[in-house]
Amino acid sequence: MKSRVLLAATIAVVAGLSGAKAADMPNTKSAPAAPAPAPFFFVHDHTVSLSYQFNATDPGVFNASGSTFPKTVLNFTHFDVWGYGTNFFTIDLLKSTAKDPSAPCGGPGGFVGCAGATEIYGLFRSTLGFNELFHTKAFSMGPLLDVSLEVGGDANTENNFLAPAKRDIVAGLEFTFGLPYKGHFNISPLFYKEWNHNSFLMPAVFGGVNGPTDGNTNYNGTWALEMNYAMDLGFLPDAFPLTFSGYANFYGPKGTGVSNLVPLATQPQTVTEFNSQQKLSLDLAKMVLGAQYSHFFDVWVGYRYWQNKFGLDRTNGVCVGVGNTSCTESSWTTGVSVKF
Hints:
This protein is mostly beta strands. It contains four helices and 13 strands. Strand 2 (69-82) and strand 3 form a beta hairpin.
């Protein structure tokens, strides 16, 4: 708005001066205004969400009443599109009920009366599009819109007995496809490398087991396949604006994380991990205020499915026991999102 006011004022001044000197310079014409510079960010969105997950799990967390518990999740997400690619950053604050207790509860000889665990989880992904880098359309064909270089990483910390401290990096390619109604489908084959922490490996817990004294793990590099998608259901009436979105991610086996580990029931070889969520959102802002406010306020319901959580085999180690399904997460979730 400020640039438009300045441009209008400039035009008015130029027009006044031209009129005053018209008799002296009858053939003089005003120079055309310089084009406005392109914005650095074509898209620059921030979203805050608050959601409730009904049946969350954490590996090794179970008792006589089962292995599931609710979680409340506060999320902040940033997404931008610029001249050469995209940047995506999201951070979750997850709060469990007391069925997923904070340390020192939850482990061998743990105390009682602990509050629910708190976790912070962050994820970053950045892409550089080949069409944009090389000023070409060679990487677009049919529904394929672009091929990009993708890099990123994750980090988390949680104050439960397991005390995870995940750090990982990813690198590879992203293939972007167009979907109807301005939707998208991204698929990324990636290299994945993780470092973490697992209190179950500490000798103080299991009486001198040949594991790392500090519980730190260094996993083998492996493959990953990450997919995300979103599409407005534009075939529905405008008065009922719905969007379907989600992700589905696969991470390959990554070893035990400890080179000198004697095979333990608590830390066997990892297996392929599958982590997914599907979401159906109602765009209340568009419904009430109009299309210019699309997705400024959404309410949504989703389904989350996570098998072999953290790569731990659901048939082994901390994942098994009476009433223990702690390495499989199958849960409905619901929430609200506000964009600004």
